[in-house]
Design a protein that fits this description.
- The complex is a heterodimer.
- Chain A contains 16 helices and 13 strands.
- In chain A, helix 3 packs parallel to helix 8.
- Chain A is globular and about 60 Å long.
- By secondary structure, chain A is of the alpha+beta class.
- Chain A has 2 domains: 4-224, Metalloenzyme, LuxS/M16 peptidase-like (Cytochrome Bc1 Complex, Chain A, domain 1), CATH 3.30.830; 245-425, Metalloenzyme, LuxS/M16 peptidase-like (Cytochrome Bc1 Complex, Chain A, domain 1), CATH 3.30.830.
- Chain B is α+β, with helices and mostly antiparallel strands.
- Chain B folds into 2 domains: 2-232, 2-Layer Sandwich (Cytochrome Bc1 Complex, Chain A, domain 1); 245-421, Cytochrome Bc1 Complex, Chain A, domain 1.
- In chain B, strand 7 (76-77) and strand 8 (80-81) form a beta hairpin.
- Chain B is globular, with a radius of gyration of 22 Å.
- The model of chain B has no long low-confidence stretch (mean pLDDT 95).
- The chains are: A alpha+beta, B alpha+beta.
- The interface between A and B is large, with 65 and 76 residues.
Chain lengths: 427, 427
């Protein structure tokens, strides 16, 4: 179970597979990592949409959708995400296993073929994407950028990110800006696509009970005709904050959002990352954490008050939704809990509980194909191929002293508040 | 004790139905090779059950939002908080309240029996005092305000306000800050004693678990309940929608809409077959493989957030379409016109076959996840359906089967359009 097979099939391209016959489905993803850059982020973000909306063989979305649905509702989709200061462009496909098709059709291999042709035989001519497909996807991208404002929790996090990482690439929005999206052309998008195929570090990940040998060969053959030169990706780590940045934005909201950003003075691949993760769980990662028990349950200040950490970048954030008049009170309460941790006021129960919670989270990963896929892709991107079990073991080995040290290393970098306007007050 | 094994040769799955002497029906669905297990303990009682009587006694009317409030308060028992108890087993616990049911759940990878014991015990041990009830006002108040800031939540709830004249489905599940201020310990006990009777509840477990394990814990912890009859009282609800259009100004950069078609609620929930046929029909009509979806997408009336859902419960049934749109009124008009044409033209056999496969594939996929299996079993139980009947109906559906559903499915003259847009948007 969960044995990862990994083979290099071209310069900077690996084919990874996990054979697992416990599931009803199989999955495959092509993950392309490039440096996160202001100039290329929008054109790159457009590529996965264009590639998964049509291809040479199925030049309209209607035709492609019908092909996928006739493969028992197979999926084909794309995304643009960040991992540290890398932009991660993925296209992925999934289908039910051949064992469950009603007519014995090899559903998964056909789905993987479709993914392969989406990637290598796009709906393009003379170095430009098909104009209709491009236009549609450009609109989708602009809508997605606009929609980030619709959800105020997402919006507050993005705004906080812009303040905290104003001078770092990490502050670049995963979709880019609306202005940039508007200025794109079918040619610019196609150039971005070619650049991804030539320069991205590429991980192909295939999971399920199907034989992946043919699929591997298919990709190997396609990549053999591409001249590749892989670009190096690095993430800038700012270990400590010198001063505290503060920003408050006003918009028409009923509930204020408070987000505090900390530098962790620790990041992948350092060994202290396990202590950081456990410290974060004790602080505010579970329904028995310090923030949950004290800020929510004892003080009744909020419905949610949670901490999370991005160990690739070396940051930790605490976020909560509160009444405007309780913002300062909540901030003080969060800092008090953190001070307690720095001063070693942590019980053995709190530590053991957090360890058990993280164990449940890690070990559950192996019961879901999509979580397994996500797990290994994230591990690959940081060049650490450990299994969920191994990561759980590392967490279990963390001591109280290491948790205190991890807490002591935190420095507050940014306090961001999104709150109502005077007009909202009256509502 | 009656134990029955139910098998499906189609998806190669099986589960056990156990009629426990305490009065509780228990479903156990073992998943071979899985490491985790998921358990959900639910009562057939949700936010719409605000007026009722037990065994022909006096009619009891309770404040809006009380079912959800009860869900929060049940976690506290005389001897402490259930989350604290779960912390010792490492289970990931939660609960949710919907219009028609309240469910308490956990997932775990270790100490299953201990966690199940906690679940069954705390749900059977209400402890409400003036003090504990007062403490929750602030927390739930913030939960309500969080949803007030959520445009997708608002756009959906406004649709229900527009569709229904009297039915309590038009009121937010969590109630309002005012309505929850009327909740007392006594009222919570009234609701608890009426609806948290084992005959009105179900326990569903899926994953790394055997029926013997579950029965052993049930034997130890469940306190037999006397059967009682709860009569839910709903005011008369006209067939026609209350309002055809409802708009709310909101800080969004792209408007959102929901078009809700009010249906005849009928005598009870749809059968597994009816549900399968309706899903196939809806897939033909408005999935990404439909003409309607692709036309609207190309013309910029919708984007890829467009989706539909069916909702039903005691005294209400509706189909909702929605997503982001810069032209919500045009999108709504197009959907209504397409319904008329769709009914005139009848079912295209090729489109039917594509949809049948897609809906079947989705049903196959649901058997990957312990969480989905267990929650589907809860729904099936409360609605008198059987788990495998649905997938069998998908696999065996014919054009003539679904043609019967076509006529009654959507009434273009009985719908509500709900729009959320900013002051700047000219809808």
């Amino acid at each position: 179970m969960n044995n990862l097979q990994r083979v290099q099939i071209a310069d900077g391209v690996h084919f990874n597979s996990i054979y697992d016959d416990r599931f009803k489905t199989s999955l495959i993803a092509v993950v392309m990592a490039v440096p996160l850059d202001k100039e290329t982020v929008s054109p790159n973000a457009l590529v996965p949409g264009i590639l998964t909306r049509s291809c040479k063989a199925y030049p309209t979305y209607l035709e492609l959708s019908r092909k996928l649905d006739s493969l028992y509702g197979a999926s084909l989709g794309g995304s643009s995400k960040k991992c540290g200061e890398m932009q991660i462009i993925s296209i992925s496909a999934g289908s039910i296993d051949d064992r469950y098709s009603l007519d014995g059709e090899p559903v998964f291999e056909k789905t993987a073929e479709l993914l392969c042709s989406a990637l290598f035989e796009p709906n393009a001519q003379n170095g430009e994407f098909d104009n209709d497909t491009f236009k549609n996807e450009q609109t989708q991208l602009i809508d997605s950028i606009d929609a980030q404002f619709n959800d105020k929790r997402i919006y507050a996090n993005l705004q906080m990110s812009e303040v905290m990482f104003a001078a770092e690439k990490y502050g670049i929005n995963r979709l880019g800006t609306k202005e940039q999206a508007l200025s794109l052309t079918p040619k610019a998008a196609f150039d971005a696509y070619e650049n991804l195929l030539k320069t991205a570090r590429i991980e192909i990940m295939c999971l399920g009970s199907s034989d992946s040998e043919n699929i591997k060969k298919m990709f190997e053959e396609k990549f053999s005709s591409i001249e590749r030169s892989v670009s190096e990706c690095t993430t800038q780590i700012i270990r400590r904050a010198d001063t505290i940045k503060k920003k408050t934005d006003n918009t028409d909201v009923v509930q204020s959002k408070l987000i505090m950003g900390f530098r962790t003075d620790c990041a992948e691949p350092e060994e202290t990352v396990s202590a950081l993760k456990l410290m974060c769980a004790v602080l505010g990662g579970t329904a028995h954490s310090k923030l949950f028990n004290n800020v929510r349950e004892k003080l009744s200040l909020c419905y949610y008050c949670v901490s999370r950490t991005d160990s690739v970048k070396g940051v930790l954030t605490v976020e909560s939704g509160v009444e405007k008049e309780n913002i300062e009170k909540t901030k003080a309460a969060v800092l008090r809990e953190l001070d307690d941790m720095k001063n070693g006021i942590i019980t053995d129960d709190e530590i053991d509980n957090a360890k058990r919670s993280l164990n449940t989270a890690y070990l559950s990963v192996t019961d879901s194909l999509s979580q397994l896929q996500g797990w290994y892709i994230n591990r690959m991107l940081i060049d650490n191929f450990s299994t969920p079990e191994q990561e759980a073991e590392k967490i279990n080995a963390v001591t109280k002293e290491q948790i205190i040290e991890a807490a002591q290393k935190l420095t507050l970098d940014t306090v961001y508040v999104l709150t109502g306007t005077d007009e909202t007050e009256g509502k | 004790m009656n134990i029955q094994k139910v098998e499906s040769s189609l998806v190669k799955e099986s589960y056990y139905v156990i009629e426990h002497p305490s009065g509780l029906t228990i479903y156990v669905h073992p998943k071979e090779g899985y490491r985790s297990a998921y358990a959900v303990f639910g009562t057939n009682y949700g936010s719409v059950n605000t007026k009722f009587r037990v065994d022909g006694g006096d009619i009891i009317t309770v404040p809006d939002g009380i079912a959800h409030y009860l869900e929060h308060k049940l976690f506290e028992s005389e001897d402490g908080d259930a989350f604290v108890r779960y912390a010792a087993t490492g289970a990931d616990a939660n609960a949710y309240t919907s219009f028609e049911k309240t469910c308490y759940l956990f997932s775990c990878t270790d100490k299953f029996e201990e966690s199940l014991e906690i679940l069954l015990d705390f749900v059977q041990s209400p402890y409400f005092t003036a003090q504990t009830v007062a403490k929750e006002q602030g927390i739930i108040g913030q939960e309500i305000k969080m949803y007030e800031d959520s445009p997708d939540w608002r756009v959906t709830f406004n649709t229900l306000v527009g569709m229904y004249h009297n039915h309590p489905v038009r009121i937010d599940i969590a109630g309002t800050v005012e309505s929850i201020s009327e909740i007392t310990a006594e009222k919570l006990y009234d609701c608890y004693n009426s609806f948290y009777n084992l005959h009105n509840m179900v326990l569903c477990v899926a994953g790394n678990v055997t029926p013997e394990q579950v029965i052993a814990v049930a034997d130890k912890v469940l306190k037999p309940n006397k059967e009682q009859t709860v009569e839910n009282i709903f005011d008369d609800e006209p067939y026609e929608v209350a309002q055809e259009y409802i708009e709310q100004k909101f800080p969004v950069s792209i408007p959102m809409f929901t078009l809700g078609f009010k249906q005849n609620a009928g005598k009870g929930a749809k059968s597994a077959k009816e549900l399968a046929y309706m899903n196939i029909l809806m897939d033909i009509f408005s999935s990404s493989s439909s003409r309607l979806y692709n036309e609207m997408l190309t013309e910029g009336l919708i984007n890829d957030t467009f989706a539909y859902e069916y909702m039903e419960g005691p005294g209400y049934a509706a189909i909702l379409f929605g997503g982001e749109s810069r032209k919500p009124k045009e999108a709504a008009q197009r959907i209504k016109e397409s319904i008329v044409k769709f009914k005139e033209n009848g079912i295209d056999t090729q489109e039917f076959e594509i949809a049948r496969r897609a809906v079947y594939g989705t049903a196959v996929r649901s058997f990957n996840s312990n969480e989905k299996i267990a929650n589907n079993m809860v729904d099936m139980h409360f609605n008198n359906r059987k788990l495998f009947d649905y997938i069998d109906a998908c696999a065996n559906a014919s054009v003539s089967d679904i043609e019967k559903s076509l006529e009654e499915m959507l009434d273009p003259n009985n719908c509500t359009l709900s729009v959320v847009c900013s002051e700047e948007h000219n809808i």
